[in-house]
Amino acid sequence: MVEGKLLGSIEAGGTKFVCAIADANFNVIEQTKFKTTNPVDTMAKTTAFFQQFNVSAIGIGSFGPIGIKEGQDDYGFITKTPKVGWSDFDFVGSLKAAVNVPVFFTTDVNASVYGEYEFGTVKKDQTLVYFTLGTGVGVGVIQGGSFVGGRSHPEIGHIILRKHPDDVNFAGVCRFHGDCLEGLASGPSLAARTGIAGENISDSDPVWDIIAYYIAQAAWSVTLSFRPDKIIFGGSVSSRPGLLSKARQQFAQMNNDYLPLPDLDNYIVHPKIENNGSATYGDLALALFALQKATVK
Ligand code: ZN
């Protein structure tokens, strides 16, 4: 029985943490946000928040890379991250030392894709891809009701793309690969090209045609790989008005009538859950999943 239980969500981002408590019907009761600093201080704030409530299970969607395979040595850890102090940090272990409840630990984008899967517009058993284009680029995929992943979670944010003709001299901003998808289409790539912070660039700036070209290629790659029912683009870059319609046009040209495709307005889309809430609702649904799994044992 889950009635009367409280569920927790931790959206662990590289720049901020969002923690939430909800009832078993996913009504959010309390939410808090704070800056991501060092792991000790950040986890102290996180556990202090949850200790105020009689929480029964917590879903965690974390920045990565992370260890998500239960039974592997790195399960529950942030693994090799450029974020100072967080490499090899035992996230789940340090949470459970203070708040010992069942957890579901996955990537931020897996949490987002799960939120859209549970509460968005797709039918169950459909294949769904979720991109976030923000400070970094991440991708979560659900197929056959499960997250796609082998030895670990997908890393589609770092695929290599064909350069836009007007972008050939831009080296990209990924510290590992330069001009991978993250290097070419993340928020910092906008500032690196134009000298203007992404949010201050006008809608008519030609840089958006370049970003749309990369979004179209990203959508094309996952279309070929997974043949999904829907591809969702979340995050601050994707929310730019008009950007996805440009990307749909480029996408149609790339396809060149090769594959039969659904109506692109309903295929390459923004998240259904508003206000960047996909990850929180996904975390809460995954917390419920963890709770039910622990109850059955
Ligand atoms: Zn990269």
Question: Explain this structure to me?
Answer:
- By secondary structure, the chain is an alpha/beta fold.
- The strands form three sheets. It has a five-stranded mixed β-sheet with strand order 3-2-1-4-7. A five-stranded mixed β-sheet has the order 10-9-8-11-12, with helices on both faces.
- The mean pLDDT is 95.
- The protein has helices at residues 39-51, 91-98, 108-119, 181-185, 187-194, 207-226, 243-255, 278-296; strands spanning 6-12, 16-23, 28-35, 55-62, 77-78, 89-90, 103-107, 128-133, 137-143, 146-147, 230-234, 268-269.
- The radius of gyration is 19 Å and the shape is globular.
- The longest helix has 20 residues, at 207-226.
- The structure holds zinc ion (ZN).
- Zinc ion is lined by residues 158, 174, 176-177, 180, 182-183.
Structure keywords:
binds zinc ion, 21% strand, 8 helices, 5-stranded mixed sheet, 297 residues, globular, alpha/beta
- Total DSSP helices: 8
Return the structural class: alpha/beta
> Segments where pLDDT lies below 50 for 5+ residues?
none
- Give me the count of strands: 12
Main β-sheet: number of strands, strand sense, barrel status?
5 strands, mixed
Computed over alpha carbons, the radius of gyration is 19 Å
Ligand catalogue: zinc ion
Give the helix proportion (percent range).
Answer: 25-40%
Mean pLDDT: 95
**SSE run:** EEEHEEEHEHEEEHHHEHEH
Strands in their spatial order, largest beta sheet: 3-2-1-4-7
| Shape annotation | globular
- Distance N to C terminus: 14 Å
Percent range for β-strand residues: 15-25%
